[in-house]
## 1
Amino acid sequence: MTTRIPAAEITGLYGTLVKKFSVKMFGKVPESLGVMWHNPAVLKASMGMGQRLQKWDSCDESLKSYAHMAVASLIGCTWCLDFNYFMAHNHGLDLEKAQQIPRWRDSGVFTPLERDVLEYAEAMSTTPVTVTDELAARLLEQLGAPALVELTSVIGYANLTTRGNVALGIESEGFADACGLKPLAAPSGRVVA
């Protein structure tokens, strides 16, 4: 991986904790952590938000995971696609669906609700935002207000992380490969973000 900012050495007590957590979760310390280590306060805030998001439970976990992967596919964040595919595997989500996220519009594996969620994730991620009243109304009817607010916040966080990773040159680190997962489908047509 060639990042735009070279990885820093992860040091200190907090650094030791971060490395232990990383090895427990991923089996290694990702190089991306070294990049973010240049500003531990930013890393800590981002990791904290990511952990809090995982505790929310108004919206189905698979819908949130697929939405994050749709954002990553649209933006072009190979790190987030790889990581979220790895996490889908670890959480027992439907890997055939996760594998098809980059070409969800052409794939026949998604339900109408999942398609609406994926469309919503992409529509939130374009500039300008292209969410329609009709799409939001369909999701509100199918999910309810608490789940739609949660899904929207997860997609917003996905945009923060994916765009930051792409800007810093942080790319896939082979998490999914280490689990022996099938490669992700090649993207079909892309919406301009």
## 2
Amino acid sequence: MEEKKIWLSPPHMGGNELKYIQDAFDSNWISQYGLNIDEFEKKIEDYLGSNSFVTALSSGTAAIHLALKLLNVGENDFVICQSFTFVASANPILYEKAIPVFIDSEASTWNMCPNALEDAVKYCLQQGKKPKAIITVSLYGMPFMVDEILEISRRYEIPIIEDSAEALGSQYKNKLCGTFGDLSIISFNGNKIITTSGGGILISRTSFDKTRALYLATQAKENKDYYHHSEIGYNYRMSNISAGIGIGQLEVLEDRIQRRRNNHDFYQSVLKDFDEIKLFEEPNEDFFSNYWLNTVTIEGNNCIITKEKLKKIFSENNIETRYLWKPMHFQPLYKKYKFFGRDLSGTLFGSGLCLPSGSDLTDEDKDKIMDILMKIKI
């Protein structure tokens, strides 16, 4: 019998998703229209509060792209972006032929460094152009330094696009991620804390921006009896079936957050006596992470274990792990663009690993992971 594989972050169904999918089939609304979409958007708006207007889309990447469109980002405009992130945070900048400017991380949250951000803003101003947007990221579910980043955003009057793709349910000072940006996004890709199989949302602060986003997401069709188009639109709308999955997943969201946080407690307990393996944790009580992925760094000059060796040992035992995101300023696609900071993100990439963090992680799975870690310690 083949040994069970322990995945990094697999989808975890709640049980009621099929009901909403069946509703879509029964009504014959299986494409980009239907009651599931409306209900999914309304439920997330109610969850987020804070004047949140939600547009359900085909991906988080589409949401970032539309956010840039709503802010009128165009060719040769500067857009500031965190370097330590998945490439989807940055790629839409190039869709619009704008110029990304990358910012290093700071040590407490691994997210955008306020000092490096201000250096980058001043650089852009010296070039004669104020940045059109700042794309912040809440990496692995950890909120960014909200107060410090928003202060810079407001002082220089540069809007924030809040990339909370990985941070649904995370909080800063008891306020939910997805509510801090002028525009915000959340992903429901298959590996996220809840999923719509593939999909995302754009969170606007006004009904006007929501209407505009929906217009652009549905091929910019104008309200006429025939197909009439005055500007470029996109096929970015979420399907009614995907939204049905999302409604079912929202029913178990709080359970999924708690399970991921329980996973963190497990790793905290197992790793407390390791000098070399450091678990990434909330810096203080202002931060509440959903711990979408639990991550570690291998530290010390005389480490016997490395991230490569640790990954190999887990792989040999049919357990999936993954290296941390490779920073954008290291990527061939983005190496020519400006980077501000001391390259902490490069250091993290060089020493870090993501550990299995799925909400379906069983006690048996945890025992197996613990046994492997204990053998490494010996």
## 3
Amino acid sequence: MASVLVVEDDQFVRSALIRHLTDAGHTVRSVGTALEALREVAHVGFDVVILDLGLPDLDGGEALKMLRGITDVPVIIATARDDEAEIVRLLNDGADDYLTKPFSVEHLSARMAAVLRRSRAAAAGAEPPSRVIRVGGLSIDPLRRQADLDGTALDLTRREFDLLAFLAGRPGVVVPRRELLAEVWQQSYGDDQTIDVHLSWLRRKLGETAARPRYLHTLRGVGVKLEPPR
């Protein structure tokens, strides 16, 4: 079970989340503003934070940046916004996952479980393989978590690196989206948009587009593969 901080100003939603999480055996604290959330996180060790974006004192996106300045606790964004650009920005600013309102308590439980598994695995000190992976001009070092393209370092987020390294470890193999969710996101199910957002951002950093791919190739309805340019 986990220690959870719910940051939500809507009293009805807040009460429902508290009731569900408590019934599931979690220890729950809740606040209604960003500043209260920052104070709580600074003084209490939480396993996960569920963060609403529409807070009365500070936008949740700004609150996320401030949280990342003081802690690496996993943060799940709970939002009614579904703009892709904003989702990409939040993920790059340090969010571990996001849920678009309205969502079911079962969906929240599954996302929380996945985030907590990743967090606990990292805390256990599991080391990635030490060998450097090379695909065309790409060079990926899982141990140092560094990636280069044609000798230039790539500035990747944690999830972008995980996605790139997983695909590069299977060059030329079409990886189903379900497998990507299971291996990269540690989720048995989820929205395809999660994968699409990260692929889109990763393509930009590799200097390509979905219409003109070089390394990343999407086979509609099948999956994704990474292979060297021809």
